Each structure stands twice: as C-alpha cells, then as structure tokens.
Amino acid sequence: MSAALEFGVNESVSDWESEGLFLGQQERSARSLMWNIGDWWNRGERYHERVDVVTREGWTGPAYGTCRNAGVIAAHWDLSWRHDRLEFEHYRLLGTRDRDTEALLHWCLNADPVRSTEQLRAEIKRRRRAGKEAKLGAMQRALPDKRYGVIYADPPWRFEPWSRDSGPTAGSGPTAGSGMDRAADNHYPTMALEGICALAVPAADDAVLFLWATVPMLPEALEVMAAWGFIYRSHFVWVKHRLGTGYWNRNKHELLLVGTRGEVPAPAMGEQFCSVIEIGAGEHSAKPPAFAEMIEEMFPSLPALELFAREPRLGWDVWGNEA
Hints:
Layout: H1 13-27, H2 34-43, H3 50-55, H4 64-76, H5 88-94, H6 99-109, H7 117-141, E1 148-153, H8 193-197, E2 203-213, H9 218-227, E3 231-239, E4 253-261, E5 276-278, H10 289-298, E6 304-307, E7 317-319
Parallel strand pairs: 1-2, 1-6, 3-5, 6-7
Antiparallel strand pairs: 2-4, 3-4
Helix pairs in contact: 1-2, 2-4, 5-7
C-alpha cells in the first residue's frame, strides 16, 4: 500500500500540502511515485483550493499536469488492480478501466516476462485499428445500395508502342519491347484511358483503392485514381523473376498504387507489409494471388470488389470480361 493512502480523514490541508512538497522532492529522483502522486491528488479533492496550491509561484511539489494525469489513472485503477510487475506507464496507456482495458492488462501479465510498455502501445493501436475497420465494414454492408470499402483493380491499359508494325519506328532506340508483337492488345481487349476514367466505380464514401500500374502508364494510373475519387497515398512494388519490356530499361517490376477516400484506417504500426514483394510472374498481365490475400489481411471486414477480374475470388465480388 502506498504511503499516501495511510493518511486519515482528519488530515489537514497543511498536512496534505506538506506531503505534496515531499513528493516533489522524491519525484525528481524517482519516476515510480506516480501512484503516490495520483492518490495524494485525489485525496486533496476535498480541499477546494488544491489547484491554487500546486499552481502558485514558488510551489516545488509535482506540477499541476502531473497531478491531474496521475490522479485520473489512480482513480480508475485501485489497489486491487495495481500489479508490482507492471509500470505505472502500462496503466497510463490503458487509461480508463473497462472490459477491454482489463483484458489488455491480463494480456500483459500472461507473458513471461511481462509485456513491455512498447508492446502494449503497439497492441492498443492494433486493436483500435481492427475495431475501426470492423465497424466501418459493418456500416458498409448494411447500406441498401451496395458500396465497397476495398476496390482492387487491374485495368487493361492500352499502351501505344512506337509503331503498330512488327518493329520499332526507324531510328528510335532499342528493339526490346517495341512493336505490336509485345502489345497487350495481342493478349486481351484493352481500354482507352478515357473509358477507364469514366467507369462508375461503386466505392463507399470511406474506401481504399489498390490500383495496378505498369511503369510507362504511371501518369495515366494516377489520373484514373483521381477520376475515381481517390487520393494517392503509397504503393507496393512487385518484383518479378524475369525481365520484361521497356524503352529506358528492361522492366522487372510493376506498381500497385494505394489511394484512399474518406476515413479509412491505415495498418497499425508494426503490422504493415513490406513495400517490395518478389513473386514469379505467370501468364501475361496476371497478378499473383498473394496481393489479394495481402489486401484481405489488411481489411478483413470491408466489402471488397475486384475490377477487371479474370476469375471468381472467394469472399469478393468480381467484375471483368473474363470473370
């Protein structure tokens, strides 16, 4: 039991004030006194001038902000909840005591050694983010007109090569990747930029877009993202295991752009995926399932739509020429 709790109800304001000065001296050499400061501050609630005492000129006890913050935590976590194995900082991070914070307290204690304050901070952020994502998903699924919190799109970009014959225009650089023999039109129907931008994408007011972009079509992809109502945030890089085409270099990667609209929770700190993912390439333009699985893990509750899909995907709605 802390010394601050040994004082009786007959304690005078001068006794209370003297203890605060003593705590101020100790506080400068030991940060473990926060429970004592909090209990002392709460006991002083009966003295209406307690704020005046700790804010007056010349006061050498704990600062008013320290007293107020410690008092809030001490009021929520009584002696029966204060474990010697945990720091006061654990309880400060937890804040008010309720079912969720009690569960987090046991989560810290049920590890050997006990989980650190840094681990607790990361877990709190992870759980809060998961709660926001689940709540947003429930709201979107309840809408009468279905809207999607996750849009995953691989548009059939129409990229104009240097010439539409079997080779490059005379005098125009390396032959690698030039001419219609490598064009996407030879593998699947493509769309002009204007047509892709004009699509009425059924995105929710709060949504995230994962948009594939080839290296030469990056400006067009950003234009599409804006036309669909999203703001560019970041991107992933898919590194393939084979060289592709290109004019300035031999491309070995594609970009998966990330954009948002409204309020969508980003991954919790420490839970983010690596920005560079190396997976072998399959048939022309096909994307590895690992990317859709990554998106599912990031947003497990939001209704998801795959645009320009090649095949059905479990748990997703899909739209596309091949699907």
